């Protein structure tokens, strides 16, 4: 059992991921492969949740594109994530913000945490 954990830790990508939680607005720099070309696409939105722990941890980012809500799930240890930038910290009182799916316009705004 200890050998399995050791191998998982060795193969996991150890990167400098900033600390962020649900409610924060982040920008994910994600590598996209199109044929033989590779480019970096920016995906900016609000973190709705962080799920699980360890190697299989994921986080969900929601953004509104052309008045349509789009959510994307990213694995934390994905080799395709170039970097993550935290744009603003949100003042929320829960860990999963699924209620944002039903809100539109000004109601869907999240207050910024004061320093």
From TrEMBL:
GO terms for cellular component: cytosolic large ribosomal subunit. It holds the Pfam family Ribosomal_L19. GO terms for molecular function: structural constituent of ribosome. One of its GO terms (biological process) is translation. The gene is rplS. This protein is located at the 30S-50S ribosomal subunit interface and may play a role in the structure and function of the aminoacyl-tRNA binding site. InterPro entries: Ribosomal_bL19, Ribosomal_bL19_CS, Ribosomal_bL19_sf, Translation_prot_SH3-like_sf. Keywords: Ribonucleoprotein, Ribosomal protein. Belongs to the bacterial ribosomal protein bL19 family. The lineage of its organism: Bacteria, Pseudomonadati, Bacteroidota, Sphingobacteriia, Sphingobacteriales. HAMAP family: Ribosomal_bL19 (MF_00402). The keyword Ribosomal protein applies. This is Large ribosomal subunit protein bL19. It comes from Solitalea koreensis.
């Amino acid at each position: 059992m200890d050998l399995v954990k050791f191998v998982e830790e060795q193969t996991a990508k150890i990167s400098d991921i900033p600390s962020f939680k649900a409610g924060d607005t982040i920008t994910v720099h994600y590598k996209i492969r199109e044929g033989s070309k590779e480019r970096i696409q920016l995906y900016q939105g609000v973190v709705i949740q962080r799920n699980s722990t360890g190697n299989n941890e994921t986080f969900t980012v929601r953004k509104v594109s052309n008045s349509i809500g789009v959510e994307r799930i990213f694995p934390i240890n994905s080799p395709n994530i170039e970097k993550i930038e935290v744009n603003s910290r949100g003042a929320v009182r829960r860990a999963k913000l699924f209620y944002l799916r039903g809100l539109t316009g000004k109601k869907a705004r999240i207050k910024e945490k004061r320093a």
